[in-house]
Amino acid sequence: MRTRSRLLLTALAAALVMATAIDVASAGHFSSSEQRYRATWGSLEFGGYTATIRCMATMEGSFHYRSFAKTPEALVGYVTQATIRHPCTGGEVWFYNGVEVLEGTTLSNSLPWHIRYESFEGVLPNITVITDRLVGVRFLAKGEFLGLTIRCNYTTTATEVAKSVLGREILRAVRELVIDGRIRSETGGCPTITMLGSGPFTTPGGARVTITLI
Predict the structure, then answer these.
(1) Within 13 A of 121's CA, how many CA atoms are on the CB side?
(2) pLDDT band at 150 (very low <50, low <70, confident <90, very high)
(3) Domain boundaries in the chain?
């Protein structure tokens, strides 16, 4: 069975009057109040090793436009920066971001990572989540497995995808990015890992991001 990773960004939808339901149901685009964003995790967990690896992580990027269509597979933006604060606990994880240094060698740069729209959940106009796929996310994990300390590469692709979900709360503001998924390793003998964590989703300056239907 194909293993898939899943990133979830969950939030409560703003309550809208029923009189607008027919107009909103025909809307074909989502509109963001901001074009650039930042997602942070105080503890992003990588399970599957003897000990769960926990790291502080940040991703930044942008949507191509302030609005994007509800069209599956549409390229809606990029992740342009991704960092992990070291040391992690239980092991280590490094993003291939062109900046991380491992034993005197700078890891290659796999950025930018693609953001592709997939679907939304909820009953219009009350949308609970908007799911995107992150393609090209590449990282190296070091942990103990079967009594050995090993290093394993992971990359999300068209078939091994990571998922992010944008949602809304009261006043339509995005609240947090919740990661909950599984990714197979491209390195032989390495485990499939689980990813779990939640953190705020804002602009790089810390302002809230709102999502509306247009």
Answers:
(1) 13
(2) very high
(3) 7-213
Q: Which of 159, 138, 179, 182 is nearest to 48 (CA)?
A: 182
Quote the tokens at residue 60. 């930044």
φ, ψ for residue 172 (rounded to 5)? 65, 15
Q: How many CB atoms are closer than 10 A to CB 145?
A: 17
Per DSSP, the three-state class of 80 is strand
Does this model's pTM top 0.70? My answer is yes
Cβ contacts of residue 82 below 8 Å, gap of 6+? Answer: 57, 58, 59, 60, 95, 97, 111, 113, 137
Backbone angles phi, psi at 170, to 5 degrees: -55, 140
How many Å apart are CA 184 and CA 157, to the nearest integer? 11
Query: Can you give the pLDDT at residue 10?
Result: 31
Q: Residue 135: which of 74, 177, 193, 197 has the closest Cα?
A: 74
